[in-house]
Design the sequence.
């Protein structure tokens, strides 16, 4: 993002980072930093321990260094590099075919439906869904990954390292464990396209408002983007929830307690206001 700075004769670049929760944590949080320095994600995640799905940006390396966070890399980013190489290498078509087979498995998994009579059955259904995804991936995707890995080793010997195809292989092979890690857990995804979709409104909006007036505006925008995206993730009509949220926060004053804030979370609020949820779904 372009940011106005009174101390500079031109704008500088600030950054929005987006963090999306998994299937059991339907929250989306945007963070703003004045630069792309790696301390932004490190500071935001703090003492988080678990899986982190992202691209292979070197700025994330410090997050994994402590061993608490497990890296899960995105197959959409890997596929893009082979797609860009297909004009200059026939081998790229074979690589795309392997990746297509992996995505076909995911498409079939996503097409499966697990009936749920009411919200009290959610935990049971989620466990069943995660178990089915993991078992299917172990049975069907893992053999394809082994075959693809052997093929990549052979293709690497036949490809110039600095060619588009060589760079695509060089991006994938050294990071292979992180690319195959999505098969370990049912709640993990094959790519991080969800964050790519969630950050798109910011990119589109940037064309309209052109720049941020200051870093303070970036932090404020991150809050509002977080609220709207979280409302959508919970299938709540954003304006209805944000309006109720603002009104209630004004009533609570400057230091509301956790007990006072918890009922305002979108899933809790929508349970008391089902009409807003139905309107948004329609």
Sequence:
């Amino acid at each position: 993002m372009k940011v106005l700075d009174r101390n500079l004769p031109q704008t500088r670049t600030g950054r929005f980072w987006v963090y999306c929760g998994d299937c059991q944590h339907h929250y989306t949080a945007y963070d703003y930093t004045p630069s792309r320095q790696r301390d932004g994600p490190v500071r935001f995640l703090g003492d988080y321990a678990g899986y982190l799905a992202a691209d292979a940006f070197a700025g994330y390396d410090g997050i994994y260094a402590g061993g608490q966070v497990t890296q899960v890399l995105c197959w959409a980013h890997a596929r893009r590099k082979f797609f860009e190489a297909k004009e200059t290498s026939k081998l790229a078509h074979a690589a795309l075919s392997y990746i297509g087979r992996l995505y076909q498995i995911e498409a079939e998994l996503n097409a499966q439906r697990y009936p749920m009579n009411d919200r009290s059955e959610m935990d049971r259904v989620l466990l069943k869904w995660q178990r089915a995804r993991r078992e299917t991936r172990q049975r069907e995707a893992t053999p394809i990954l082994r075959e693809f890995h052997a093929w990549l080793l052979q293709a690497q010997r036949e490809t110039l390292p600095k060619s588009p195809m060589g760079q695509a292989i060089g991006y994938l092979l050294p990071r292979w464990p992180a690319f195959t890690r999505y098969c370990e857990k049912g709640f993990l995804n094959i790519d991080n396209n969800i964050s790519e979709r969630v950050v798109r409104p910011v990119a589109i909006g940037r064309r309209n408002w052109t720049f941020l007036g200051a870093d303070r505006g970036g932090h404020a925008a991150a809050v509002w983007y977080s609220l709207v995206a979280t409302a959508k993730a919970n299938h709540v009509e954003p304006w209805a929830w944000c309006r109720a949220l603002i009104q209630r926060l004004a009533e609570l004053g400057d230091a509301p307690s956790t007990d006072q804030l918890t009922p305002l979370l979108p899933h809790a609020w929508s349970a008391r206001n089902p009409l807003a949820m139905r309107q948004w779904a329609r």
